[in-house]
Amino acid sequence: MAADLPTDGAPNRRHQMFPVLSDTEIARISRFGSVCRYARGERLFTSGEVGPGMFVLLSGVVSVTHRDGLGHVLPLVRQGPGEFLAEVGQLSGRPALVDGTAEEAVEALLVPPGQLRALLVAEAELGERITRALILRRVSLIESGASGPVLIGPSTAPDMLRLQAFLRRNGQPYQMVCARKDADAAALIAQYGAAADEVVVVCPDGSVLLNPGEDALARCIGMVDTAERDELFDVVVVGAGPAGLATAVYAASEGLSVVVLDCRAYGGQAGASARIENYLGFPTGISGQALAGRAFVQAQKFGAEMLIPAQAVGLDCSRAKDGPAAELHVKLADGRRLRGRSVVVASGARYRRPAVPRLAEFEGRGVWYWASAVEARLCAQAEVALIGGGNSAGQAAVFLAQHAVAVHMLVRSAGLAASMSRYLIDRIEATPNIHLRSHTELSRLDGCTAEGLEGLAWRDHRSGAEEARRIRHLFLFVGADPEAAWLQGCGVAVDAHGFVRTGQAIEGAAGDGYRPAALESNVPGVFAVGDVRSGSVKRVGGAIGEGAAAVAMIHQFLAARAPVAV
Predict the structure, then answer these.
(1) CA distance 416 to 428
(2) Which pTM was predicted?
(3) Does domain 11-144 have CATH number 2.60.120.10?
(4) Are 337 and 331 in contact (CB under 8 A)?
(5) Of 392, 373, 358, 365, nearest in space to 476 by CA
(6) Beta carbons of 109 and 83 less than 8 angstroms apart
(7) 336-353 per-position pLDDT tens digit
(8) Which residue from 152, 259, 364, 458 has the highest number of Cβ atoms inside 10 Å of its Cβ?
């Protein structure tokens, strides 16, 4: 019955996406849910509305369809007795991406999100099968372009590329519609008076946005809520890169209440890596997006709450030293506050912008700070330039070389040995269309705002010789500055470059004899992990290790602050 949903055609994958549960397995699941009944034609779940959880069909057939905001309906799959209906969004109670309608009288076991997470943890073998199916169903929706918001506009418009990148990096399916080929899309373009390079977005609930920002789009598709959060979390994690996600996984799996926020997407800089080949346990490599996506699901499985996008703009430490009643407040850009017994600063670092005139003018119009499949398609059979000599730059260069005619890699130093892993240097040297240009820096950008970047020039700083090229795509992976400005006003100690100091580096800086743990700052309960921490190794493996280690220190901190029983 599950043969209609688009997949990659692999029978094994199809079987994993739609397993049929045995009577024994359904009996084991039954203690986590309750039986519900639906009449013919009744909806079990509706696209754009919060899904009630996972349904295990006991009798009857359910038709799963996609209905976009333009009124188009696409049949996806029919499911019957022994099958379950859900995808990965139901782990955290997100809006449904599709409609589920009873074709006949249906009896089903409904497992709400909280109970679904409990099931996955309690029933390890069965939970593994269910989790794999939930993930594969989301992947299929992304690959097929048969769900999510509808993006209407030119495929190469800067705002189209911006919104695509945001949705892809957050694992959200979407559709692109050309107004020239769809009368309904053309009518919306005209109705909302969209300019030639603007994007009209139709959300699953039918609401329409013109050239929205990422926050507005996220609210429209139900990625993040706007409700006040008054609960006191054990751990507030700021940043959803490898360090932050590792903290969330280990803390939530050990019973701590955890909330994670990030202003952009999960994965951080590592999420933009085309292939990480030196991470333990993946001998053939894994993309940063895949690694981060698995950790993102894993954290939700254990009950960590995710607020993405949500930006931290301040930290209130005024109650950090109140003993058992101590708490910290993370201030969000939307005016809300998150209360935590501890805060983990995992906000990472951002790539620097070279001091080149007109750089900001071309950002999103030929100047990129990541290299995903979207950008790679734009660069097909073209020359590109890339600046940077670290591992992220090397991974991007190798990835782009599979699509571009030539990748010109500009580095100010004499070579790559001091800043890049040997395996990447070997790969770059073995790739004939990657041209390493040492002792070289970007000197000029050419073009107009309407058309985007049209050319650039670089200069050999030994000879002063300048070379101009008609290159329309420039990728920047230049150094890193810490994302720690939001900590100002709280007294968190930083080094000369703004990275957060921890452990012995600031012992005694609290001024009251407080001895911070190895990953703790001078403010009690404020920990720092990953790229934002002074002295970190700036590697994915190191960031994950720090996230795991921080949880043990948080346990000790919370135990020491627990009220004494009398």
Answers:
(1) 10
(2) 0.90
(3) yes
(4) yes
(5) 392
(6) no
(7) 999 999 999 999 998 888
(8) 152
